[in-house]
Amino acid sequence: MKILAKLRGLPLFVHVVGLLFISTLVTQALSLVLLFYSPPPASELYAVPDIVASLRFPSTEAAKHRLKVSPDTAPPYEQSEDRHARATSERIARALSLPSHAVRVTLGWHPGKPWLSLVTGPRAPEPPVSASSRSQRLVNVSDLVVAPFYISVRQPDGTWLTAEPSDDGFLIAWRQNIVKWLVASTVLVIGIGYFSARRLTAPLRSFAEAAERLGRDPRAAPLAIEGSAEVGVAAQAFNDMKERLRRYVENRTQMIGAIAHDLYTPLQRLAFRLEAAPSDLRTKASADIAEMEAMLNATMAFVRDATRTQRCRLELTSIVESVVDNMAETGAEVEMEPGPSILIQADPIAVRNLVSNLLVNAVKYGVSATARVFAEHSFAVVEIDDIGPGLPTEELGRVFEPFYRVERSRSRDTGGVGLGLSVVRSIALAHGGNVDLVNLPDGGLRARVTLPL
Fold first, then answer.
1. Could you read off the pLDDT of 110-162 as tens digits, one per residue?
2. N or C, fewer C-beta in 10 Å, the chain?
């Protein structure tokens, strides 16, 4: 185990070079095994009487003796000069009752057809007998011709017939064995490369998953430091960055909460001192102080929601249906369309606040609300439609800014404090999702929330 851990800690360059070396070594080893342990292909032997029969009766005898006989206007090749070729030529001439110059024998691959060695290969060894095994007659060694050969015989009309070994196809027996061996070695090397590549890229997949978790939950578990040396350094840097981001967000959130909390004291003193002010001034100032307290309360609630992390597996459709039922009991015009059961990993209180804020906004500014839940690709989708006037296009993105309200009067009865949609987007982003507002073609506004399944 210690040796494996040390090997994993080597630089990525060493891993890649090692993979190439092992693949090459395996390929060469298999080739050497094939070279030294495969039997050499033996040449095929043909009997002169069978060749004579094929030249005399091409239509019936040639295929029987695995020969190909083709006519030509001239002999395709010159007479071989070796003794065996001349003896074979004379023997065939005597058998066909022809003069010796009417028969030409060429033994071996002809220089004009070098490609033949790639098309026709030697066959398995055969005993020195006639190709026509039916006759079962013994044949002298001098009556045998070793393939390849080309034997041309002049006909009475001046044309020539050439007999040569027939081509049994590209993948003959010995070549099939080589192809099988090459396929097996290729599959083996590809398998080694595949599993090695998966092991090398596994830390990169872990990086992607860790980045996705960081987007959903800044307090997610740190990335495990394993793999090559470069990957270990990058994983440590990623964990350090994640920890700094977490501390940064928490510090800013705590600072906002502290400021909001500390503002309560001067506001209370101001309200106490206004008791001695004239009635009309006290009424206006008290309304402003009440609005500021409402904004501080909303800010404190936002901070509490942002610092709470209680993720668990929950059923989104049931939560939305529960919020809709609670609002309907209070007289709000809300309804929910039937939908499938959708499971997500989220904070149930935060998700309930998200749905509640959207439904309250829809009822307040759009008279009624219709909610639906469904799955789309790898996300759960919550859509809430209203029948109100919608929003100007330039306002669709700005309404998510903290304390921003389309209602400019700052009236608490009509505009609230402007943190509802900011809370909604913050919750969606914290869970790895998003929220958008879209004006419907027939009027009304649609709020669309996506949360990862």
1. 555 543 333 333 333 334 444 444 343 444 566 788 878 888 999 888 889 99
2. N
Do 127 and 195 share a structural domain?
A: no
State whether 180 and 162 are in the same domain: no
pLDDT single digits (tens) 233-272: 777 777 777 777 777 666 666 676 677 666 767 777 777 7
Q: Is residue 305 part of a domain?
A: no
Average confidence score pLDDT of the chain: 76
What's the pTM? 0.47
Provide the greatest CA pair distance for the chain. 147
Judged against a pLDDT cut of 90, whether residue 374 lies above it is answered with yes
Q: CA 271 to CA 396: how far, in whole Å?
A: 37
Residue type, 435: V
Closest CA to 316 of 380, 385, 383: 380
Residues 79 and 186 in one domain: no
Instruction: Say if residues 163 and 92 touch (Cβ distance below 8 Å).
Output: no
Q: Is 90 part of any domain?
A: yes
Residue recorded with tokens 């996705």: 212
Mean pLDDT of 83-90: 87
Identity of the residue numbered 269: R
> How many CB atoms lie under 10 A from the CB of residue 130?
22
With respect to residue 292, please indicate whether it lies within any of the assigned structural domains. no
Q: Within this chain, do residues 319 and 386 fall inside the same structural domain, yes or no?
A: yes
8 A C-beta contact, residue 34 and residue 74: no
Element housing 435 (H / E): strand 434-439
> Among candidates 114, 119, 111, 120, which has minimal Cα distance to 77?
111
Q: Is the residue at 283 inside a domain?
A: no
- Per-residue confidence (pLDDT) for residue 114, from 0 to 100: 41
Q: How far apart are CA 308 and CA 353, in angstroms?
A: 13
Number of domains in the chain: 4
Q: What is the DSSP string of 216-252?
A: H-TTPPPPP--SSHHHHHHHHHHHHHHHHHHHHHHHH
Q: How far is CA 256 from the centre of its chain?
A: 44
- Which range of residues forms the domain containing residue 216? 211-248
Q: 338: domain CATH number?
A: 3.30.565.10
